[in-house]
Structures are given as structure tokens and as C-alpha cells.
Amino acid sequence: MQKRFQRVAHRGGARLAPENTLAAFRNALTLSIDAIELDVQMSSDGHALVFHDATLERLTDGTGNIGDRDFTYLRSLNAAAHFPGGWPQEQHMPTLHEVLALAKARMHVYIEIKASERDGVYGRYPGIVEAIVKEVRATHMQSQVLIMSFDWSILTTVDALEPLVETGMIVGKAEWKPREQGVAWLVEQAKARHVSWINLEHTLFDEGLLPVLHEQGLKLGLWTVNTTEDLQRFAQAGVDSLTSDRPDLFAALAE
After folding, report:
1. Are 56 and 66 in contact (CB under 8 A)?
2. Please, what's the b/e burial string for 59-88 (b: 16 or more CB within 10 A of its CB; e: otherwise)?
3. In a designed cystine with 11, which of 16, 19, 162, 246 is the match (CB 3.0 to 4.6 A)?
4. 183-207 residues labelled b (16+ CB within 10 A) or e (exposed)
């Protein structure tokens, strides 16, 4: 019998509805899941908005870098403009507050803090941690969210501001090279930042990771897993969460 794991809708289920929109999150709430995952960027005038890309062209009918655009402009865009096959209604870019209010008392929320990016150069949005923590507190969801980032050092700021919130390092091939650095290095990085989760690109998974991480009190989540076969395989391996663009597939997994 496989261990219970958290079933997470990536960007609300990016293959089922326009990603990171209220339409996607509302659809996710009808599925067999435990959490929604979302991304937070900042407008030029300091609003915490749920959106994945640093630029607007892939997902909306707007142009430019999100950090250069104010809230009024960003809210005027259709975030469903380029959804494959079309979408019947326009979708506004939601605020973090709107999504947290939707999920409150219904399911967990995985919040990814995005880096600012311009021409391949990454930075940090001023005040992004404070803005996110403010919204989490306003909705009284400290025990209901997991805050994550590829920018691991920013997680120490989250912990300092709101120690009741769980944090997690997002780890991909660029962040961790298993053969060279080893699992002990990954554990050391997690312990130094007081995180409780490692959220790992699923192609980096090795069953030898789990006993080491669990022994150290760390949970392991995998992203982004989009086939029933892979979801079943990783669930049976005993991971703590699985994140998918196809959260409808979780219903097919054995309990």
C-alpha cells in the first residue's frame, strides 16, 4: 500500500485551463487534489500578482516585462489569450490575495516566489517576500501554505518574517548536480535555510534520496509529472508530493 502524498495542481493545472488564472484554480478545486501551485511576480507599483513568466507575450495579449508594467495595465490583459484551442472567457491576471481567498479552508497552496528577469539576468523584486507574507497573514493561512523558490537564500527571509510558514527549496538540474555534489550537500543547503521541503525536478529522482531526506526530517516533492504511469511510480516510491499539469490524472491512482 502506497503512502499518502499531496496531489498538487501545477499552476492550477496548466494543461486543463489557462495557467495561473482563477479559471484554472476553480477547476482544480473540483478535482482529486490536495493543493494548488502558483507563481508570484510583482507589478511596477508593487502588487503581488499570480503569473509565471517575466514577460507577457507567451500567455497574454500584452507586451513587455511584467516588472515594467503597472497593476492597471496588467489587469487589463487577457491571461487566457493564447491557451491552446482557445478559452471561452477572458481571464484577468489574479492577485495573490484573490487566489488565497479562493483556496482558504479548502486546500493547501504552494507559492513559488519568482525572480525578476531581464535579458537572462535574474534579480529580486523589492518587497516581494513582505508582500507575500502580508497576504498570507491577512487570510490567516500560515498553516495552509508552502512558500518555495529557486532563490534559496530568499527562504531565510521568509522564515525570519513568518516562522509558522513552511518553506521549500526548488531544485532543478541547474541547482543540483547529484554526482558531483551528492545528497549530503543538498541536505546541508536545506538545513542552512531551515526549510522543510525539497521540491525536485522529477528527472533527478533516485530512490536512494528518500531515506536520506526523511531521516533528516525533510519532505520530498517532485515536479512536473504528467503521465499516470509516472505518477503511480513515484507515489509507490513514497514521495511526499507530486505536482502535475494534469491534476485530473490523480483520480486514476490507487489510494
Report:
1. yes
2. bbebeebbbebebebbbebbbbbebeeebe
3. 19
4. beebbebbeebebbbbbbbbebbee
**Predicted pLDDT at 75:** 98
Check if CATH label 3.20.20.190 holds for domain 6-252.
yes
Residue 108 has pLDDT above 90, yes or no: yes
Domain spans in the chain, listed from the N-terminal domain onward = 6-252
Does the pTM surpass 0.85? The reply is yes
- Angstrom distance (rounded) from CA 243 to CA 198: 13
List, in sequence order, every residue forming a beta bridge with 170; answer none if it has no partner: 199
In the structure grid, which three cell numbers stand for residue 66, read together?
A: 511584467
Residue 43 CB contacts under 8 Å (≥ 6 apart), including other chains: 49, 66, 67, 69, 70, 71, 74
